[in-house]
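BUG-115 | component: ligand-complex export | severity: low

The export step for zinc ion jobs runs without errors, but we want the raw record kept on the ticket for reference. Input record follows.
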Amino acid sequence: MSDAIQQPCPKCESPYGYTDGQTWTCPECFHEWTLEEIAEEEAANGFFDVNGNELKDGDAVTVIKDLKAGGSTIKSGTKVKKIRLLDDPVNGHDISCKIDGHGQVYLKCSVVKKA
Ligand SMILES: [Zn+2]
């Protein structure tokens, strides 16, 4: 929980949302929300590895199975440093990274675990 007196409206992004202690209200579009809703939404929009651990930009991960990448194979156990998470997935792939010997590749969160 934050102690902020104002929260940005998740609907119109007005910065003047105010709370009565439970529900937040936007004075500009009259949208109402709770911090729990926001937290749930963020969880749904987050990036999670195969074990359900949240992934962040810059994390290091390990590939958990052999993956075809062009003509070569990224072996299970390959370590990947400094992943970049994509808000707009490329063909269902939501991680962009560089792997030695493979260059720039896209991975799915479901085939990696946090290192
Ligand atoms: Zn609003």
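Assignee comment: Attached the raw record above. The pocket of zinc ion is lined by residues 9, 11-12, 14, 26, 28-29, 31 (CB under 6 Å).
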